[in-house]
């Protein structure tokens, strides 16, 4: 029995010594290796300069590339895609197709062995712009019916500049927060802004001014409640006035307030002020701490005015 145990012991010891010897040789006599990083983002420098000239990048052959680094084996686990910088300077690009060389910087102690491409192709078009409200949103909320409530914003709107072929794809400007960072207690945040399409995906090559926004945010819940229209009208024998409006409005705020709300009223609308058909943007009477939810589109009241002729009487 003792002999068998000894054999097992020496077998395990031999394996440990073999591994140790291999590690010693690899890390001392052959300490370097090459590692490919597949999704290194390209930083497009000079796009603000292009915008100042009335131009913008509409297409790029690559937004991410793979980069292979030569590095010490011992450092392999410590280096990621984020430690590699790939820069494309587009400040001198002109209308049409341009070839842009890439400048690749490797972390200290490493060197660039190879890259997927050495240059990329971009297309530059005339730029256009539009102003959009800034929406403070969660980037990672797993549950529905929740949105951050933002106050004291340094800016409530942003100007976006993009190629004419791209500008219509920009549906909103978002300041994105992590759900776990927002609590019932209001806290200050400074967040960079992103231009998003109708699916909530970030659109590249869009310049946003300002580039970031400072605000206070707390946790909130959303709720659809009845919309009550406060429309007033005095008797007028010369005109007949009617209106139509949405039935509900989506609001957000602290759950301690929103949970008990069943309706929101509009501010007073004087129908007698209108002598022809009109669409009027709704103004709401919102309780303190309650605002419209990000998911609530602009709402309008449609006012129909008919002049009463004497023959109609």
SSE blueprint and pairings:
Layout: H1 2-28, E1 32-45, H2 47-52, E2 55-60, E3 64-72, E4 85-89, E5 96-105, E6 111-115, E7 119-138, E8 146-151, E9 157-163, E10 172-177, E11 187-196, E12 207-209, E13 212-228, E14 231-232, E15 239-244, E16 248-253, H3 255-258, E17 263-266, E18 269-270, E19 278-281, E20 284-285, E21 291-292, E22 300-307
Parallel strand pairs: 1-4, 7-10, 13-17, 14-18
Antiparallel strand pairs: 1-3, 2-7, 3-6, 4-5, 5-7, 7-9, 8-13, 9-12, 10-11, 11-13, 13-16, 15-22, 16-21, 17-20, 19-22
Report on the structure:
This protein is mostly beta strands and 313 residues long. It has three domains: 32-125, RNA Polymerase Alpha Subunit, Chain A, domain 2; 127-221, YbbR-like domain (RNA Polymerase Alpha Subunit, Chain A, domain 2), CATH 2.170.120; 229-312, Beta Complex (RNA Polymerase Alpha Subunit, Chain A, domain 2), CATH 2.170.120. The protein contains three helices and 22 strands. The strands form three sheets. It has a 17-stranded mixed beta sheet that branches. The protein has a three-stranded antiparallel beta sheet with strand order 15-22-19, with no helix packed on it. The chain is elongated and about 110 Å long.
């Amino acid at each position: 029995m003792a002999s068998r145990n000894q054999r097992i012991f020496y077998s395990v010891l031999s394996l440990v010594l073999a591994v140790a010897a291999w590690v010693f040789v690899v890390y001392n006599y052959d300490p370097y290796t090459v590692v490919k990083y597949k999704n290194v983002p390209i930083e497009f420098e000079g796009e603000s300069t292009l915008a100042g000239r009335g131009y913008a990048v509409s297409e790029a052959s690559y937004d991410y590339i793979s980069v292979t680094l030569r590095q010490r084996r011992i450092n392999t686990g410590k280096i990621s895609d984020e430690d590699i910088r790939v820069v494309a300077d587009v400040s001198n690009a002109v209308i049409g197709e341009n070839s842009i060389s890439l400048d690749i910087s490797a972390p200290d102690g490493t060197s660039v062995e190879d890259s997927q491409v050495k240059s990329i192709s971009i297309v530059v078009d005339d730029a256009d712009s539009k102003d959009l409200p800034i929406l403070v949103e969660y980037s990672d909320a797993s549950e529905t019916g929740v949105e951050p409530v933002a106050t004291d914003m340094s800016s409530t709107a942003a100007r976006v500049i993009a190629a004419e072929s791209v500008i219509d794809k920009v549906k909103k400007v978002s300041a994105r927060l992590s759900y776990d960072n927002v609590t019932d207690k209001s806290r200050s945040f400074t967040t960079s802004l992103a231009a998003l399409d109708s699916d909530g995906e970030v659109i590249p090559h869009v310049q946003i001014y300002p580039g970031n926004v400072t605000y206070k945010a707390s946790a909130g819940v959303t709720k659809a409640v009845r919309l009550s229209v406060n429309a007033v009208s005095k008797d007028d024998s010369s005109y007949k006035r009617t209106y139509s409006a949405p039935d509900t409005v989506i609001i957000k705020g602290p759950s301690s307030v929103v949970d008990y709300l069943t309706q929101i009223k509009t501010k007073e609308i004087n129908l007698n002020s209108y002598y022809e058909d009109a669409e009027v943007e709704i103004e709401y009477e919102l309780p303190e701490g309650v605002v419209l939810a990000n998911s609530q589109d602009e709402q309008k009241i449609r006012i129909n005015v008919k002049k009463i002729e004497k023959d109609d009487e």
